[in-house]
Specification:
The complex is a heterodimer. Chain A is built from eight helices and six strands, in the order H-H-H-E-H-E-E-H-E-H-E-H-H-E. Chain A is of the alpha/beta class. Chain A has three domains: 50 residues, no CATH class; 129 residues, Rossmann fold (3-Layer(aba) Sandwich); 30 residues, no CATH class. In chain A, the strands form two sheets. In chain A, strands 3-4-5 form a three-stranded parallel beta sheet. A two-stranded parallel sheet of chain A has the order 1-2. Chain A is elongated. The termini of chain A are far apart. About 6% of the residues of chain A have low confidence. Chain B is α+β, with helices and mostly antiparallel strands. Chain B folds into two domains: 128 residues, NADH:ubiquinone oxidoreductase Nqo5 subunit (Beta Polymerase, domain 2, 2-Layer Sandwich), CATH 3.30.460; 331 residues, Cytochrome-c3 Hydrogenase, chain B. Helix content of chain B is 38%, strand content 16%. Chain B has a five-stranded mixed beta sheet, with helices on one face. Chain B starts with 6 loop residues before the first helix and ends with a helix. Classes of the chains: A alpha/beta, B alpha+beta. Chains A and B meet through helix 4, helix 5, helix 8 and strand 6 of A and strand 8, helix 5 and helix 8 of B.
């Protein structure tokens, strides 16, 4: 095993030297049809030695199941990214899954408003870990063109943690493909942040600051219920 | 060519129905306590307790059978509800009914018994402005969460106030909790995150076996404050990017035209003929793209066919998006129209651009043939869609349905012909109608409209190609800052991809609108969902929802 962290799949094959191998590696001789980059990386050894972590990261990045999750305008461009011409499938990230329980990656394609944020949080919570989030479009960065709206959450990061932001209104399919590729790269290199819970305002009702609104609603709201509180004044 | 056609002179003695302000004043008699004329129509002020009587009289005696829009607003000294009425037979006949209510008790009679579409419109008015309606069957919030405090478009709303939103499971409205015993009905939440709802729509469904007992579409999951955005931006340039984001199914130019038409008429701006032709061509390309999306996703809903039809539709949309990108510089959010014209001329070399469009149009009949083979000629789809989701014409009218949804119910209503704007009345094309009233008709209607749009585009391309070079004026002379006179009001609509897309603007003497109201066709069309799915099987409800072709950005605004 190489100590170089950046080359996870280099095997120590200095002891394995045969004519066949040399022929395959150098591409000369009659039997050069096995010559390939993969072969070069693995050598002729039938074993691959790597850290399990590295292997898992590589696997995760190379087989991503996206959640079929459409919110707003960006979802139309997201559909175009999935379908012919751009075909996200080519980048090991194609099949949209209708259920969050089968998905690794959630692309958040659009404006999040107050009524939808708890629902999106619920969908995100239902995804099995490890899970990754791609914020698509300006609305998921800051609220975009609707930033000043009374009902608009100022970015997806207020509700769930985001790994990659793809700017644009909407981003072109090429931009989304680039964003997905970047996420894959980060995952494969083990750089992607471990799942963290962001300090979104998700608390049990009794812990909230007391104000007029709370008093009024205190009797109606079940303490087991998911409650989201928006402090518009503190929003970016 | 001016878009403005004097409304009062339009109605010659062909129909003997009262149309002009004087005739209507005579009809209403004592009901009208004042006049408040808008630029598009005569307006009558009535008492808050006379709403139903007035609307009944206008509907039954004067033929105003289409409640196009309900605008609510808060003025300095009063609240106001405006009912914009028009007629399905003659769109140029319009009348506004203004209902002022006092500041301390904003309460007026509901129009729901007269026009069922008033149900949602008045709920929206209650939600955003805070006017209450007597006799309303179900006056609760529609766009904002139930726990929201305050009415955001009223004058004293504090936007920095914290809000609390809960996520709770909804109760079955038809039955008590039967979880312990043998239940009779079952309650299902469909959405707001669901592949079949075309976005973030939440349908509260009660099932009796496999049949739908009750459906309640719950909207507001994409309420992006579009009206507030437009009220805080200036007329000249800042509002135009927003319409692109209402109906985002690639119908951008159609939406921009709605704003352009209202604002141009409000400010009395002419649009050069050359620009009108470019607008017409661009708008019809958008209509094709939008209908392709509708057809593709409809097939996806009915068969779950993500492979052939959906991909074919996407392939054709890609071609249109390329053409539109050449024209406007963007794939979806074009921002191409300007008040008084368009932002730039056709791309050079022009021949290549025309060639590209012609190639697309030449391929289109073959493409549609493929669609017909795969979809409308397919027995499975026919079994699923014929005679399901039936929307009778009277019901469609009462709900204010427009666009392909209305035309597939046999209502011959298309603003491009009935209230002509742009270059449509110079061109040769037909309005498509179908008497089937079911899901299949709505699908067919859209596919045949694509052919008509292709006809329009082809004629526009011919015209543009022969247009003399020195007469290619793309914009008229428009002042840098527009300040329409205080208290001028206008309601103007265009035929969007989904139907009648109207804009109401009240100017307050500044360079920003005092009130900007969007009449969304999807909002009214979606209202028919309970009507067409109650009693049907659950899968047919999904098909009906697909056939209504809603875009949530436009429903919620």
């Amino acid at each position: 095993m190489s100590s170089d962290q950046n080359q996870p799949f280099v095997t120590d094959d200095s002891k394995v030297q045969t004519k066949t191998r040399d022929a395959r590696m150098t591409g000369t001789g009659t039997d050069n049809r096995f010559n390939s980059k993969l072969r070069e990386a693995f050598g002729s050894s039938p074993f691959i030695l790597t850290k399990f972590d590295n292997f898992m990261n590589w696997v995760r990045g190379s087989s991503m199941f996206m959640l079929q999750f459409g919110i707003a305008c960006c979802s139309i461009e997201m559909m175009h990214t999935y379908s012919v011409k751009h075909d996200l499938d080519r980048f090991h990230a194609g099949v949209p899954r209708a259920s969050p329980r089968q998905a690794d990656v959630i692309i958040v394609p659009g404006t999040i408003v107050s009524k939808f944020a708890p629902r999106m949080k619920r969908v995100y919570d239902q995804m099995p870990e490890p899970k990754f989030v791609i914020g698509m479009g300006s609305c998921t960065i800051s609220g975009g063109p609707f930033q000043e709206g009374y009902n608009v959450i100022k970015g997806a990061e207020e509700v769930i943690p985001v790994d990659i932001h793809v700017p644009g209104c909407p981003p072109r399919p090429e931009a989304l493909v680039y964003g997905v590729a970047k996420l894959q790269q980060r995952i494969a290199e083990g750089e992607s942040s471990p799942v963290t819970v962001k300090p979104y305002e998700l608390e049990q009702f009794g812990d909230l600051e007391q104000d007029e609104l709370i008093d009024k609603l205190a009797e109606e709201v079940d303490t087991d219920d998911l409650v989201m509180r928006y402090n518009w004044a503190d929003s970016p | 060519m001016s878009l403005e056609k004097p409304q009062d002179e339009q109605s010659n003695a062909v129909v003997a129905k009262p149309t002009t302000g004087e005739e209507l004043a005579e009809l209403l008699g004592d009901l009208a306590i004042g006049r408040d004329d808008h630029m598009n129509a005569p307006g009558f002020v009535i008492r808050p307790t006379d709403v139903q009587e007035t609307l009944f009289r206008l509907r039954d005696d004067a033929g105003f059978d289409h409640l196009s829009n309900v605008t609510a607003e808060e003025r300095e000294d009063r609240y106001e509800t405006i009912y914009h009425l028009t007629s399905y037979d003659d769109r140029t006949r319009e009348v506004s009914v203004v209902v002022p209510t006092t500041k301390d008790d904003p309460r007026s009679q509901s129009a729901n018994p007269v026009f069922r579409t008033a149900d949602w419109h008045e709920r929206e008015a209650y939600d955003l402005i805070g006017i209450e309606y007597d006799d309303h069957p179900d006056l609760r919030r529609i766009l904002l969460p139930d726990t929201w405090q305050g009415h955001p478009l009223s004058k004293d709303f504090d936007q920095r106030r914290p809000q609390v939103v809960t996520l709770k499971e909804w109760a079955n409205p038809l039955a008590d909790d039967h979880r312990d015993s043998e239940g009779e009905t079952m309650y299902i939440n469909i959405g707001p995150h669901h592949p079949a709802t075309h976005g973030v729509l939440h349908v509260r469904t009660v099932l009796d076996g496999e049949q739908v007992a009750d459906v309640d579409p719950d909207i507001g999951y994409l309420h992006r404050c579009e009206e507030q955005m437009c009220q805080t931006k200036t007329y000249r340039h800042q509002i135009m990017p927003y319409p692109d984001r209402w109906d985002y199914g690639s119908a951008g130019l159609l939406n921009e035209w709605a704003y352009a038409r209202a604002a141009e008429d409000l400010n009395d701006i002419d649009v050069p003929e050359y620009a009108q032709i470019i607008r017409t061509m661009g708008a019809e390309l958008c209509r094709i793209a939008s209908h392709m999306l509708a057809v593709g996703t409809f097939a996806l809903d009915v068969y779950g066919d993500f492979t052939a039809i959906f991909m074919y539709a996407m392939r054709d949309r890609e071609i249109i998006q390329n053409i539109l990108e050449d024209l406007t510089g963007q794939r979806m959010m074009f921002n191409y129209f300007r008040l008084g014209g368009v932002v730039w001329d056709l791309p050079e070399p022009r021949e290549e651009f025309f060639e590209k469009i012609r190639d697309f149009l030449d391929d289109l009949p073959g493409t549609l043939e493929e669609y017909h083979d795969l979809i409308s000629g397919n027995e499975i789809l026919q079994l699923r869609t014929i005679d399901t989701g039936v929307l009778p014409p009277e019901v469609a009218k009462s709900y204010g349905a427009t666009g392909p949804v209305a035309r597939a119910s046999g209502i011959d209503y298309d603003l491009r012909r009935d209230d002509p704007y742009g270059y449509y009345d110079e061109l040769d094309w037909d309005v498509i109608t179908d008497d089937g009233c079911d899901n299949y008709s709505r699908l067919l209607c859209r596919m045949r409209e694509v052919e008509e749009s292709a006809k329009i585009i082809s004629q526009c391309v011919d015209l543009l190609e022969d247009w003399p070079e020195e007469e290619r004026t793309i914009q008229s002379n428009v002042p840098r800052t527009l300040r329409p006179e205080d208290d001028t009001e206008i309601y103007r609509a265009v035929e969007g991809a989904k139907g009648e897309l109207g804009i109401y603007i009240r100017a307050d003497g500044t360079d920003k609108p005092g009130r900007f109201k969007i009449r969304s066709p999807c909002f009214s069309n979606l209202q028919t969902l309970p009507e067409i799915s109650n009693g049907e099987y659950l899968p047919d409800m999904i098909a009906s929802l697909g056939s209504l072709d809603i875009i949530l950005g436009e429903v919620d605004r």
